[in-house]
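Protein of interest.
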Amino acid sequence: MISEAMTGALNKQISLEGYASFLYLSMASWCDREGLDGCAQFMHRQSEEEREHMLKIFEYLSEVDGHALTPAIPQAPHEFDSIQELFKEVYKHEQKVTASINELVALANQENDHSTSVFLQWYVNEQREEEALMRSILDKIKLIGTGPQSLYFIDLEIEKINAAELAAEEAEA
């Protein structure tokens, strides 16, 4: 049986994952409005991925006789100064999620909750990949610069990255 403290902490993570899903959905809408179709598709996929992360914790809590709570999700921002700032915000949010996962792992270890510790290892690996991907995107955006056609090339690069991520997901399935 899972402890109340761990149940509470996992429910907090459910809320964080749900917020990430809504944040990325909001970003997808902004990208779409700005004519950045490749970026919009990427953010839609990211939103769905975060929703899956949330549901995975929901299911885990049920398996271990915990009680998953449907989170109240705060309104995500819906305006961004630039595509560069948008991706900086994504990276910052992924770092926040990583810190939260690390706190969950520490709590699981403190409580000798080996089942939850093993479950969380998937999230540890996922967050390492997410942060690396966002750093890679920010590096590409920096290389492209802010010239007159930069948005066009940024959108193309993100579209390529999204296609590669989708292909990798399909290969794993």
Summary: The chain has five helices and no strands. The domain at 4-172 is CATH 1.20.1260.10 (Ferritin). The radius of gyration is 17 Å.
